[in-house]
Queue: 2 jobs
Job 1
Amino acid sequence: MRCYGNIHEHKTKPGIGLRWWAGVFLVLVPVPLHAQSVIVEIGPVQVARALAAVVKDPAGDPLPNVEVEEFTSDWKQALRSAKTDANGTFSLTTVKGRDVYYLQLSLDGMDPLRVRVKVDHWRGKKLKLMMRVAT
């Protein structure tokens, strides 16, 4: 900095203004935060009367618009999908010769849920699934 009487000459480094604006931008622009989700897997194969279920939240309320996907047994490829209705119910048609169905349920704000289902019209029960809130 040079001084000429009462006048001061300031030399600025190139790019300081750009860095300042970039910093302001980063502070003022909201960054969306998402809850971490953990895939919850129901251990034993569930035996159900049909490939259908009621999906509820921890309070027992039905969950509409849950994405229900059937996967291959290695969980790598989705085969088909459905969504729960306003009452939290979904159903998929059974496939002749398929023994166990690998289903994953997903909804924003909830932990994904994986369940294996075997359909037995005589021994099965009505399937009820509960998703938990992501933390």
Job 2
Amino acid sequence: MLGHRLYTKQTGREGKPVAKLIICEKLFTRREYYFACKFDFCLKIRSKDSLSLLVALERQFDGPVLITSTQGGTNIEEIAADHPDAIIRHPIDIIKGLSREDALAIADRLEFRDEALEDVCNYLLILFLTIVLYF
């Protein structure tokens, strides 16, 4: 790959040159989730479960909304078209931000249990705070 061009949907027909490779341990995910919170910013965490977070503004809610799905992956548009009921939208109060109670409720709706429930709650709070500080 090194020194060649990488062709994907994101790179287009011209592709992108591969200037460096990053090698890491392969982790086997048991389940994959999609997290989006509309601001047009995306972060991805890989652990036992693969989590994505996208933050954007949603006119329907007059502010930010956290979008999640248990059907993870990167093609959320296809999931929304094929299985609209698999998409969960959770508005975020523009003044108080994402509360711990909101984060726990979201993790619960995604059927996380026990310590995984707390882990996902903490990931959501940290990621949301990171996004707020970034902007």
